[in-house]
Amino acid sequence: MSMSYINRPNRPLHVYALLYLAFLYVPVLFLPLFSFNDSIFIAFPLKEFTFKWYEVMFNNEPMLAALANSVKVGVVTSIVATFLGIFAAKAVTRYRMPGRGPVVAFIMLPLVIPGIIFGVSLLILLSELGVRLSLYTVTLGHIIVCVPFAMVTMIPRFEGFDASIEEASSDLGENMWWTFWRVTFPVVFPGIIASFLLCFTISFDEFIIAFFLSGTEPTLPIYMWSQLRFPDKLPGVLALGSIILMVSFVVVFAAHWIRNRGMPYKRVGGV
Amino acid sequence: MSNNSSFISIQNVSKSFGSVAAVSDVSMEIGGGEFFSLLGPSGCGKTTLLRMLAGFETPTSGEIVIDGQSMSAVPPHQRPVNMVFQNYAIFPHLNIHDNIAYGMRKERLPQAELDKKVEEMLEMIKLPGYGKRRSHELSGGERQRVALARALIKRPKVLLLDEPLGALDKQLREQMQMELRALQRSVGITFVFVTHDQEEALTMSDRIAVMSKGRTLQIDSPTELYEKPITREVAAFIGTMNFFDGRVVSVDNDQIIVDAGALGIVKGIKDTTNFGVGEMAQIAVRPEKFSLSIGAPNGVGNFIEGNMISTAYLGERSYFHIAVNGIDQPIAVSAQNSASADINIRDHKGQVWLGWPDAAVVLLKQDASHSQAQ
């Protein structure tokens, strides 16, 4: 009996998938590769293996300052965006509110508006208001960009758990705040962690909005971009880029793992 | 615990969701310590009524009073009621001990005393030592008991149960029915029990409110509901019922005589329902009130000749369908398969005789909406 085309392996598709993955990831691998190359030129053939660019990086004060700026902005952004995302997701999934559709669309808008449009308009708005550009303005821009991501991360958590456990809590004598603290929060906690990590990564490598809204203190992407003009600084940037790449991978996988680990809650109550 | 006859008073309560009326002008009084059931098909408003007692829904109009206190301005978390949810709603992030102890936070008991109370509840629901387990490790029946313990530890004045046995298999359900009834007697708390299963309601309840389309049809004890339904809808919903059309020919002090066409002249007992001579009436007879014989009965009473068209053997009882000339629907008859029962009748084909005593006849008012239904 010949196999149905539904189950039959498809060789051309396999080749296509491999080429696709290579196209996606091989350029990224050049970053760590050249960060260990003993030459200031990013070119083949490779020279000796070295750790010196990592040493250079750790002695580069302005770069470390930029890294610290990015971490600060990322932490504040991810906390604020995640909390806004929790409340928005709860409202969207739990309550029958008038105008729900337009409200959700409005919150989701930053996902589709090009960053450059967003950056320019925020810049115009802030300068009209006379606000001085600083890390605060960068953080504000990042929060707006991150809220929709936080919200889409949280919505499945809220949809996944049975609203009757919140009713049960209220039935057992707890008011709205205690119910949130004792039931809602712990049940959606894995989603909160996932959202926090996602928002942090988005903020950490965001360039366009930070470019328009940062004042005298650059975030890391801005700093790295400014260093590209000086060839001798480039390997140091590559070293830092390699570290960030590794940390990002760890963070994204951790977020994914936490989100999946929490999912069995989804079926709770349905017998 | 109060024993007055209107411990819970539901006064002209209505609830609409948009343009849909879920509950329409329902009034009832539930006594203290009573096991009271709300019975009806899905969508009849029974769960909405229960949720209004719990405070999760606000009546569109009308008032609910529990133990002399109006519930209008009382939010769910301050009501003297607790609920067992249909899906049990066990907290997934807490173990069984913490689930049962959940509602005790405000009591501020010392840990040792709280642990002792929880262990007592676990003993009561026959799950001692289960405190450390989580809800996904429990079976449906065990979760149901945990939900019960979690509500009862608060010693509510009223326990609300929303189809708590619906998800259990038949044997476990019957066992839980007995246990729940025994538990209710021992704790003396008023139970308001929602179910669509008429057998369950008959088995467990002191009184039952039969609901349909947001209204109450009849509120009575199980025996009264079964033996003396006041409308055709109730008669048809509780158990099986044969209906015949007839016209009242005479009414005297204790008897109503009805001409039922092919069924002959039927005598019904006169009780509270008034009939005028010439009025149309519904004659309702339960399947088990008929007696079945192969030969013509030689005693007194009512009988009619018919033709056995099908039999079904159900173990403890058998069901028969008898076609009678001049009556559209075959008549349903059931008989116990007791040791003394006539075994021949189960395999019998063809002519049989149906007999019934006058007391078996329930006379109902002709219901306009149902007169052409069957």
Helix residue percentage of chain B: 10-25%
Considering residues with a beta carbon less than 8 A from a beta carbon on another chain, report the largest interface and each chain's count.
A-B, 24 and 30 residues
In round numbers, the mean pLDDT of chain A is 83
* Large-scale geometry of chain B: elongated
Q: How many alpha or pi helices of chain A?
A: 11
Q: Which class do the helix and strand fractions of chain B yield? A: alpha+beta
Q: Tell me, what's the shape of chain A?
A: globular
* Strand-residue proportion of chain A: under 5%
Task: Describe the protein.
The complex is a heterodimer of chains A (271) and B (374). Chain A is mainly α and 271 residues long. Chain A has a single domain (67-263), classed as MetI-like (MetI-like fold), CATH 1.10.3720.10. Chain A is 72% helix and 0% strand. Chain A has helices spanning 11-35, 52-58, 61-94, 100-108, 115-129, 135-160, 164-171, 176-204, 208-213, 220-227, 234-262. In chain A, α6 crosses α8 (176-204), α7 crosses α8 (176-204) and α8 packs antiparallel against α11 (234-262). Mean pLDDT of chain A is 83; it is low at 264-271. Chain B has helices at residues 46-54, 96-101, 111-124, 140-152, 170-187, 198-204, 222-227, 232-237; strands spanning 8-17, 20-30, 35-39, 61-66, 69-70, 81-84, 158-162, 190-195, 207-212, 215-220, 242-251, 255-259, 265-269, 280-285, 291-293, 302-313, 317-323, 331-336, 350-356, 362-365. In chain B, a hairpin with a 5-residue loop joins β12 and β13. Chain B has 2 domains: 8-233, P-loop containing nucleotide triphosphate hydrolases (Rossmann fold); 240-365, RNA polymerase II/Efflux pump adaptor protein, barrel-sandwich hybrid domain (OB fold (Dihydrolipoamide Acetyltransferase, E2P), Beta Barrel). The radius of gyration of chain B is 25 Å and the shape is elongated. In chain B, α3 crosses α4. Chain B contains 8 helices and 20 strands. By secondary structure, chain B is an alpha+beta fold. Chain B has a 6-stranded mixed sheet, sandwiched between helices. Chain B has a 5-stranded antiparallel sheet with strand order 13-12-11-14-20. Mean pLDDT of chain B is 88; it is low at 369-374. The interface between A and B is medium-sized, with 24 and 30 residues.
